[in-house]
């Protein structure tokens, strides 16, 4: 009997040993699998963020190129060297972002096909831009030739440049949407796998607790670890959602000034251009480049922040404010503000920007030039056309010495 008990105890001990080893293996594997799933989730999120930043930067630069081309066409007698230089820098930045975009692995074939189409259109767009520059600069010394080349440039822009630029933007949007959808599907699959994994773990732990007390105790300890892991995953999921929300906000927000950017302006009013009347003012700080040249970019950024805060403080009640580019601000007045009142508020905004702002014990005062547009429905097809008119008004005001408000017709 004693021998049998010893044998049974030995069998029980073996069972405990085997169960313990199996549980240890199971726990080790679960930790490894959890780490792999966590790594996959983190990598997918980083790829989404990286691709969104690259596509956003490419679109920014394409819009800047389009703006510079329109500025050259709008005023062919101006010195276009700065615009040409900025176009070159934009395409260099686009090439960098495309190379960075291509380094991300495991993209869906459909997404990569859309991207290659977009890349083809960008390359074609770049070649056309170079032809445009050569045509424009070749007649730069002859006013009559410049006028004729400007007419050709307008035709080239309408028939060739703009379709290529618009198509490239659409292809990049399509590639971004496909990639984001694919990545979200991967994240959803990871979450489903985690749910299944957590369910299986719970079954295994409950079964172990019913079998033996030792395994139950070990299972409870492991369950506590899993609960902690689950909370960590929930915390990570919460952070992921917050980061995604912040990323969406960053896409339409100027981080420096805390104002909405040009993309937000496009989203807010593009749908209204066909149907609504509105009052819009564009403001540009005169001679702002001198601040960066004399005091440095950090000083200039702080100056822009102070001006932005003052504009928000004074005019947020009457208009939606945007920092569409560097030292350019846009006010879209609310429907409750009449045209005459909007013009008075625009003049007051120029006066606010003319105030003395003190930075590091240095008092600085710069004037500002504005263009005011009492817009009526269907006068402009898109935001770019609207801004071309208003920038033309800014140029007229600066030609008069600045510190004025020009009414755009």
Structural commentary:
- By secondary structure, the chain is of the alpha+beta class.
- It has two domains: 1-251, Four Helix Bundle (Hemerythrin (Met), subunit A), CATH 1.20.120.30; 262-408, Alpha-Beta Plaits (2-Layer Sandwich), CATH 3.30.70.270.
- Helices cover 73% and strands 10% of the residues.
- The protein has helices at residues 2-74, 81-102, 109-138, 143-211, 213-251, 262-269, 289-295, 297-315, 339-353, 383-399, and strands spanning 278-285, 319-325, 328-333, 357-359, 362-364, 368-375, 405-408.
- The strands form two sheets. It has a five-stranded mixed beta sheet with strand order 2-3-1-6-7, sandwiched between helices. Strands 4-5 form a two-stranded antiparallel ribbon.
- The protein is elongated, with a radius of gyration of 31 Å.
- Residues 142-148 have low confidence and may be disordered.
């Amino acid at each position: 009997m004693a021998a049998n008990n010893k044998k049974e105890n030995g069998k029980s001990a073996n069972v405990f040993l085997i169960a313990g080893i199996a549980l240890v293996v199971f726990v080790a594997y679960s930790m490894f699998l959890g780490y792999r799933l966590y790594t996959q989730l983190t990598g997918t999120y980083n790829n989404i963020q990286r691709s969104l930043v690259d596509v956003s930067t490419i679109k920014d630069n394409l819009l800047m190129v389009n703006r510079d081309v329109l500025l050259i066409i709008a005023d062919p007698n101006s010195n276009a060297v700065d615009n040409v230089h900025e176009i070159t820098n934009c395409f260099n930045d686009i090439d960098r972002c495309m190379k960075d975009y291509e380094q991300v692995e495991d993209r869906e074939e459909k997404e990569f096909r859309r991207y290659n189409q977009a890349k083809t259109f960008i390359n074609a767009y770049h070649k056309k831009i170079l032809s445009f520059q050569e045509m424009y600069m070749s007649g730069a010394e002859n006013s009559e030739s410049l006028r004729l080349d400007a007419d050709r440039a307008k035709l080239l822009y309408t028939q060739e440049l703009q379709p290529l630029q618009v198509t490239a933007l659409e292809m990049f949007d399509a590639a971004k949407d496909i990639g984001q959808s694919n990545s979200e599907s991967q994240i959803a699959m990871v979450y489903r796998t985690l749910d299944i994994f957590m369910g299986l773990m719970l079954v295994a732990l409950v079964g172990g607790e019913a079998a033996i007390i030792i395994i139950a105790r070990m299972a409870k300890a492991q369950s506590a670890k899993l609960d902690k892991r689950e909370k960590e995953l929930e915390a990570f999921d919460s952070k992921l959602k917050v980061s995604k929300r912040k990323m969406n906000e960053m896409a339409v927000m100027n981080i420096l000034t805390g104002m909405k950017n040009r993309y937000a302006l496009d989203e807010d009013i593009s749908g209204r251009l066909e149907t609504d009347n509105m009052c819009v003012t564009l403001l540009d700080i005169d001679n702002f480049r001198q601040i960066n040249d004399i005091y440095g970019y950090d000083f200039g950024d702080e100056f822009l922040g102070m001006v932005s805060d003052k504009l928000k403080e004074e005019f947020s009640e009457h208009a939606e404010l945007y920092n569409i580019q560097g030292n350019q601000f846009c006010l879209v007045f609310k429907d409750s503000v009449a045209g005459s009142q909007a013009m008075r508020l625009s003049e007051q905004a120029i006066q606010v920007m003319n105030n003395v702002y003190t930075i590091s014990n240095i008092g600085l005062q710069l004037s500002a030039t504005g263009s005011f547009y009492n817009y009526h429905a269907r006068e402009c097809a898109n935001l770019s056309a609207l801004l071309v008119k208003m920038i033309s008004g800014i140029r007229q005001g600066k030609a008069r010495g600045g510190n004025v408000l020009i009414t755009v017709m």
